[in-house]
């Protein structure tokens, strides 16, 4: 089995300041990788470099494309990369406002990616949109409502539906449950787990919430000061952390 | 002619600059070419973009016609016509077939135009994606990469809300299979006419953009397979000239709400009445004049 | 099926003057298919630690831990994940699940993960929950709202849902009444009969004697206090 994503020596500097440095990992189909670290550890920079939102200074992000097999997305042409991010990739933002069109109905938000890849039959587009809204537990009678009329949890679920409608194989998530009530978080986590399993999705989840990665991620990468300091199975890293910083991080979590 | 003005008001350098933009626009149909729009002696929104394009196109032997919503006799049309009479001393006309340059706001004449004519549109907002994507950097990229899914989102929203595509003017088109373009706020009734023999030039003064549709260019109105584009049109005939195929204006006749539908293209209506067509509420032309 | 050879484990506490605490030295253990082996020893002797090392939950510093064909000590994370999905089951003392997920789905999940159809998985889950005397009215509720004993039984149902060839059981009969203890013991016997290799920790001596063929005192592998 080939890795879906092969990340080699990714480094990113902001002027002289370090964003992230020498990051390497492979992600296989169906795997969920968690990236944890505190604010400023470089985890969001890394995610943005991986997803093509920022250009890394060095390194490769090789994605196993459907058509041409493994291709470096850093040196890929912009149209090709943008096409990838509309089809095989998905990005779930922490703030739904960054990932949704707030002035467009829920159905239109979900339908946009379909129309972007050439769907031109209104009935079909709407049918698919309604199906996906149902999958993320948004009732059909809310299809024509705008996301601005939705709760935070619903907005986040809508963002997920909008992203998954074109059947992507890799989904990037930046603090997907951040800013949500704990009860809403749980429902979203369960939804994500089910979708990841049923659709065979691979995912990279950036979060500072160790409870989220324990439930969502198979593997874990711990970042500090722009570098990856520890990797491994999620439960192994959390239960038997090897690096001092990870030990500190794990022991700092408040028990409920 | 008042000698204080250069021919057609603008200096020659400016006209050259505009012509270069026009040539680029013609070379890339539907593509919005930035240009250094000048201050004109009229406010934005009164056709400053169209006026600059017209100024750059006019030759001393041209005949100019100016229409606003199809009519030659509205304030805006009259002012612009007078402006060029004064600054370029060109012949002016209200007759479509006599004119070589026609500047228009919000209509395409009913009569077919010819290869010898230029149609200049006044454009308020040239970017068709603007209302969905406010960032200019992003809309430019979307045009460059042909990412036009968003345009259909707008039409999708229409159908979701109204059961049909309710956009009735400034209806987006795809030009020569490449660029999506705002045809300026003409009624969608006029969209099919854009595949024409004449050269079509578009000027947006405030937004500083010029674009063009060369003669016989393919212009397709965007739609869905199950909601195809329909040009629409009134079920009535023109009350004055009995035209069934023209775009009509609704006119309120009295305080009791009596209505009448008449051609918005005044020249077309006149021509038909001269040819003897009489509508339900019309009278023969000679009596009307008397 | 499970083979542990010269296995050692230390904890390094970086935030406490980098204290290195050896917890296991040169442990050896072999469990054949169809066999159940009990780990014994005083509290703190390292029974759970060894179990977690076999599951890949704790890292092992030296030696080999072979489960099926795979050496856990050197395996890649994804190899361990695949092993856990298909081959190696683990019933811990604590239920760890996503909040607000129905008990029926919690129990079905390991089966869905190996591609069992939802209906079939639910059917097996119902059967197990019935055997473990979880009242049907609770099946659609999250087990996190249940009592300790009920949670433990849901955990067992989940652990036995997929027929793993190798299983680790950490105190499966603790806090259970007689009838449920009996059910768990018969589940273990059934697993052995179909050829599962089982390592268990049983506080309850009678249960240990019933379920296990042998027992290993792990305190012989515990380093003497230094």
What do you see in this structure?
The complex is a heterotrimer of chains A (256), B (290) and C (226). Chain A is of the alpha/beta class and 256 residues long. Chain A is built from ten helices and ten strands. Chain A has a six-stranded mixed β-sheet with strand order 6-7-8-3-9-10, with helices on both faces. Chain A is globular, with a radius of gyration of 18 Å. The model of chain A has no long low-confidence stretch (mean pLDDT 92). Chain B is α/β, with parallel strands linked by helices. Helix content of chain B is 27%, strand content 17%. Chain B is built from seven helices and twelve strands. A seven-stranded mixed β-sheet of chain B has the order 1-9-8-5-4-2-3. Chain B has a three-stranded antiparallel β-sheet with strand order 7-6-10, with no helix packed on it. Chain B is globular and about 55 Å long. Chain B starts with 11 loop residues before the first helix and ends with a helix. The model of chain B has no long low-confidence stretch (mean pLDDT 93). With 226 residues, chain C is of the alpha/beta class. Chain C has one domain: Rossmann fold (3-Layer(aba) Sandwich), CATH 3.40.50.300. Chain C has a five-stranded parallel β-sheet with strand order 6-7-8-3-9, sandwiched between helices. Chain C has a four-stranded antiparallel β-sheet with strand order 2-1-4-5, covered by helices on one side. In chain C, β4 (62-67) and β5 form a beta hairpin.
Kindly list the characteristics that best describe this protein.
heterotrimer, A: 256 residues, Rossmann fold, four-stranded antiparallel beta sheet, 10 helices, 38% helix, C: 226 residues, alpha/beta, five-stranded parallel beta sheet, 7 helices
The largest contact between protein chains, plus residue counts on each side, is: A-C, 27 and 22 residues
Cα-based radius of gyration of chain A, to the nearest Å = 18 Å
- Report the principal-axis shape of chain A: globular
Helix coverage percent of chain A: 25-40%
* Helix and strand sequence of chain B: HEHEHEEEHHEEEEEEEHH
The assembly state of the depicted protein chains is heterotrimer
Number of helical elements of chain A:
10
CATH superfamily placement of the largest domain in chain A: P-loop containing nucleotide triphosphate hydrolases
Please name the CATH topology of the largest domain in chain A.
Answer: Rossmann fold
> What is the first-to-last residue Cα distance of chain B?
34 Å
Query: Which structural class best describes the helix and strand composition of chain A?
Result: alpha/beta
Uncertain residue segments of chain A: none
Termini distance of chain A?
A: 41 Å
What is the CATH level 1 assignment of the largest domain in chain A?
Alpha Beta
